[in-house]
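Researcher: Please predict.
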Amino acid sequence: MTRLKELRLHGFKTFADPTRFVFERGVTAVIGPNGSGKSNMADAVRWVLGEQSNRSLRTRRADDVIFAGSEGRRPQGMAEAILTLDNSDGWLPIDFSEVSIGRRAYRSGETEYLINGTRARLREVVDLLAGGRLGANELVVVGQGTVDAALSLRPEERRQLFEEAAGVKNLQVRKNEALGRLARARDNLTRVGDLIGELKPQVRRLALQAQHQQEHDSFGRRAHSLVIEVHRRRELLART
């Protein structure tokens, strides 16, 4: 299974300066006083994994993740967070032993995603992470109160939780997407069949016209040959 090796932040929430966190094998505990940014680290992980909910990120607007400034510090125009993952066991479906996933947000509203430093679409990031069950909707980050809330879930909700943890939900999503594509393909085939049915009378009419034209051309060529033959014979008669 993949593991988090490094988290780099710059301009993300309270991390105005470039900040790098290295996570060794085993358990890493992050401690610090209130307001030191511990929760913001977890938010950054969620954010890079594709989280779109302002509530889950503890923000009101999308650009609230960008450092808003402080006494003596000007607001920044961009927030960036990069996760580096150990993929030496091939847990993620990509041919790299180390994978970096990055996300940038600008005050203009633009958002960029990166895979190993190359710009990518959100869908590409989501598909890559889903292959290793590391999507934003997976149980990658367990927030405060999540365990207590899980204990009070109804049976159906608990089943959904277990499916998410086991990766079944992603398979179901892919199945539904495949079924949707199949349904659209069938609709397209139906429309093609209807179109063929509409065009058949025109095709028959055009084929008949083409046949008549061919016959007309054939008659024209024969008439032309006969005219030439008549002229030739007249010339022969005139000579005799």
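Model: The first strand starts at residue 3 and ends at 10.
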